[in-house]
Amino acid sequence: MREMPPADPFDDDKLKEECGVFGVVGVADASSFVALGLHALQHRGQEAGGIVTHDPEAGFNSARRFGYVRDNFTKASTMETLPGPIGIGHVRYSTAGSKGNTQIRDVQPFFGEFSMGGAAIAHNGNITNAVALRRELIERGSIFQSSSDSECIIHLMARSLQRNIPERMKDALRRVEGAFSIVAMTRTKLIGVRDPLGVRPLVLGKVGEDGWVLSSETCALDIIGADFIREVEPGEMVVISKERGLQSFHPFEKAKSRFCIFEHVYFSRPDSIQGGQSVYTTRRAIGVELAREAPVEADLVCPVPDSGTPAAIGFSQESGIPYAMGIIRNQYMGRTFIEPSEQIRNMGVLLKLNVNRALIRGKRVILVDDSVVRGTTSMKIKQMILDAGAAEVHFRIASPPTAWPCFYGVDTPERDKLLASHMSEEEMRDHIGVDSLKFISLDGLYRAVGEANGRDAKSPQYCDACFSGEYPVVPADMVEGGFEIKTAAE
Ligand code: SF4
């Protein structure tokens, strides 16, 4: 039985990162470090979380819970059950196959007992051939416990004939297509792996004398006082143990990296470093590019909080138009109305955002937001600003039009629900009802993330499939199910 609904039931008009992963080895009390790390990664998934640890005396232990890390993994009654110097954890929104119907058995990390010992894995991303793999595994006798695509990895490991867990994991992951950043553990080893294209992030850090950390983002290293060492490279597997320190393997055929460009725009926390760059600095640069590409005369630049803030600052600096907090976010709304009544639900965005009326009245306002997905939130925000007496409303969007769904671990609506899949920029402007609406160009976004010459059309430097429709890994299950992807000529 599901125990609680998503933490923020009003926020249905954003793409949602589906997972964050974290692991640590070589510390006295791994579970406390993992809990803090997961807390820092909570923005990557608020529906549920789990921790697995191993202790030489107590063996493997796990706790998986619905809800926030701070509500579950701060209680002594839970943390005392998770002793040991090694542990991994996972926060999730929801993974493929169980959207809106998550069971506790879908909550990671997953655990498998093999002939050479146990192993637990936590996966961020999405396996794009999971349906075919699952069918094959079930036909061969595997019994699945969850609806998660990630469980395929445990079953593939169980079928491998290799003699140790890292080798079995390599075998399993060579069968897997799609996006994966994995943090795994055995009794003594912490393991991190990124898919050959490095679509989802994974970083490596050091804590204390002997401790090593793996995390989706560097912000979770900061919270435990760990030093950022480097990113796990695309296609790399790192195996960390007390005996051998850090070992690096490259089990996959080499491929050009295609990191998710949307991590820079929205998913990652602004205080993280991704691809060697501060996410905050990149977002500010997006605002600068936007101001150059789509200038407009106005009195104020206001962010749509919180993710539009760095881009709005950049837009203001480049345009010279004053920056102002025209919209204030109520940080605590999501927890106040866990199970809202219909009347309260209909208030939607008003519960979360409020207009700073005294500032807005009579002004020509530029609103900077990170993305437009269905467009429903944009319409409500526009109305709030007009109701507060704004003279004009101009939207500037810090990403190109989101016209295609993501199959690599980000929750997106079906294609026909994406406003940009069936409307031009002008049509969206009229539909939302604003004076102007402009998105940053794909080239402008690439420039902002540090590609001075923009996007290499023949061999793009990032995954940008949700904007371009060019999928770096064919989403085999979706294609089998009838989804038509663009060919290069289109
Ligand atoms: S499709 Fe979009 S959201 Fe998904 S991995 Fe690619 S860039 Fe990121």
What does this structure look like?
With 490 residues, the protein is of the alpha+beta class. The protein has 2 domains: 16-257, Glutamine Phosphoribosylpyrophosphate, subunit 1, domain 1 (4-Layer Sandwich); 284-452, Rossmann fold, CATH 3.40.50.2020. The chain contains 19 helices and 25 strands. The chain has a 7-stranded antiparallel β-sheet with strand order 4-3-5-2-11-10-12. A 6-stranded antiparallel β-sheet has the order 6-7-8-9-13-14, with helices on one face. A 4-stranded parallel β-sheet has the order 18-21-22-24, sandwiched between helices. It is globular and about 70 Å long. Residues 1-10 have low confidence and may be disordered. It binds iron/sulfur cluster.
Brief rundown of the structure:
With 490 residues, the chain is an alpha+beta fold. The chain folds into two domains: 16-257, 4-Layer Sandwich (Glutamine Phosphoribosylpyrophosphate, subunit 1, domain 1); 284-452, 3-Layer(aba) Sandwich (Rossmann fold).
| Separation, N- and C-terminal Cα atoms | 45 Å
State the helicity in percent bands. 25-40%
> How many H/I helices?
19
Question: What's the alpha carbon Rg, rounded to whole Å?
Answer: 23 Å
Task: Please state the average pLDDT score.
Answer: 91
Strand order across the biggest sheet? 4-3-5-2-11-10-12
Helix and strand content put the structural class at alpha+beta
Which percent range describes the beta-strand content? 15-25%
